[in-house]
Amino acid sequence: MTNSAPTVAQAIAHALKRHGVDVIFGQSLPSAVILAAEAIGIRQIAYRQENMGGAMADGFARVSGRVSVVAAQNGPAATLLVAPLAEAMKASIPIVALVQEVERPQVDKNAFQELDHIALFASCAKWTRRLSGADRVEDYVDAAFAAAASGRPGPAVLLLPADLLREAAVPSQFERSACYGRFPLDRIRPAEADIEAVARAIVAARHPVVMAGGGALSIGAPEALARLQDLAGLPVFTTNMGKGAVDERHPLSCGVLGALVGPASLGRYTRSLLAEADLILQVGTRNNQNGTDSWRLIPPTARLIQIDIDPQEIGRNYEATRLVGTAVETLDALTEALRRMDLSARTGARPALETRIATAWRRFEAARGPLVQHNTSPIRPERVMAELQTLLTPDTIVAADASYSSMWIVGQLRGLAPGMRFLTPRGLAGLGWGLPLAMGAKVAKPDARVVALVGDGGFAHSWAELETMVRMGIALTVIVLNNGILGYQKDAETVKFGTYTTACHFAPVDHVAIARACGCVGIRVDTPSEILPALRDALASSQPTLIEIMTDPGAHPAISLYDGTLDRPVAAEPELV
């Protein structure tokens, strides 16, 4: 018996393997591709809902530094990929989506679940193409990975006609052997003259600071930023998505700023450092609304210097000196240029800066002290975060849902090393993505301890994936902050309109019962004394565990929207010295 020629589906599977793919987030569709992939050792993580699968692929890519792959059926399944791909597009996360199409002879005949997928993905993918023939398999797979991983990373969609997948693949005359599975695909840096000019500007500045965004978490960038921070004595702020880019215990680390500037926030005490800056070096940040507190944080007198791989992001909202390049190469080049210069002024300014930043952290700890020490029920989320902090290591991965969950993590936890991962869906900030982000991260790093923090409102979007965790052996800890409301919706509507809509309150839900029904360990926490034992047991467990914590519906993060509205105005404090 002779071996038959490989099918197109088999050729696709082998091309994926060449790009380092060992996991596909799928639901057994396109079946021909999944069968071929599993036959050669590519694992399928079979999600329950397509939009959760897309978010799992997002979390996998963020943590692994590799292009992830998600697969879906045509029609309704494809439409459910739009939301996670849109998040990945905004957050610069590379995902290749393999989407089945109806058979070619059925096109434009109202075939079952036929849809114009090219139009569907036009706004949420960098690149969308339909595989054109059995002789172009490797060309198109390579093009999809190159599109996802090159320049500013993002999603690419490859459409696969169902009948074409069954055809025999036609070997290419030109062999392909390259691997495009890691990102950023191309390592680039600005011209030496531009690097030298920026280095001189940093030396000459009286109050230079750094703002680090999500791009500062690309491979090697946190370590490069740490070297620059130490050499030049630069205070570093991060955006929400940039959290983890620096060790927040470093004496020059100012934590997350953004909208977290209300009472009992760290930003309350550090933002004056940014306000006084005469030079701001931005690393991989889009200067978006959340990262700049609605564009109010950047002082108009400061000179901006932007490092970004996307040329169009530089100068979008503020005129800036352009350093187009990948973060690690550009930061390392800048550090080397600074080594050749006189940094005595920076060295001389460092002790006073460190004292000022340490004072800010102390004031922050004092201001939030009553909240983290809160010892009655319902429980304050700040107390939960304080207990979790004691169990974190630099290798722990913490993922959060959108809205308040993200703010509790970025505003209350403290990063322990450059590159520690805090995953928040801040591209579009859709509810329900905290759990699947954590699941993708755990698949990427199975030996890491992974924690997902979700609210009861957002968690309702992703309950079904508890069964996926059990079935696929994805053992992580899910913390559900159950306050019975849509917190941000209720609070924001109250501030803006003086009342809130009927959607903000929920009927009671027993999340522990749901978890146990799916095969997870379920723990309910009603009192503050129960928090630490529950967290300790969950993090030590080899089983998927859900901890439901009954929290105060009146608790909200210290964001600027509530300063003087929900939060009592705080009198101006003396400047940090």
Automatic annotation (TrEMBL):
Alphabetically ordered keywords of this record: Thiamine pyrophosphate
Location of the Thiamine pyrophosphate enzyme TPP-binding domain: 405-549
Cofactor(s) essential for the protein: thiamine diphosphate
Lipid biosynthesis in keyword set: no
Domain of life assignment: Bacteria
SUPFAM superfamilies per record: DHS-like NAD/FAD-binding domain, Thiamin diphosphate-binding fold (THDP-binding)
GO biological process, one term: L-valine biosynthetic process
UniProt-recorded Gene Ontology molecular function terms: acetolactate synthase activity; flavin adenine dinucleotide binding; magnesium ion binding; thiamine pyrophosphate binding
Domain (Thiamine pyrophosphate enzyme N-terminal TPP-binding) ranges: 7-120
UniProt-listed Gene3D superfamilies: 3.40.50.970, TPP-binding domain
Gene Ontology CC annotation, any one: acetolactate synthase complex
Ranges where the Thiamine pyrophosphate enzyme central domain occurs: 195-334
Statement: the UniProt record of this protein carries the keyword Nucleus: no
Family affiliation: Belongs to the TPP enzyme family.
Protein name: Acetolactate synthase-1/2/3 large subunit
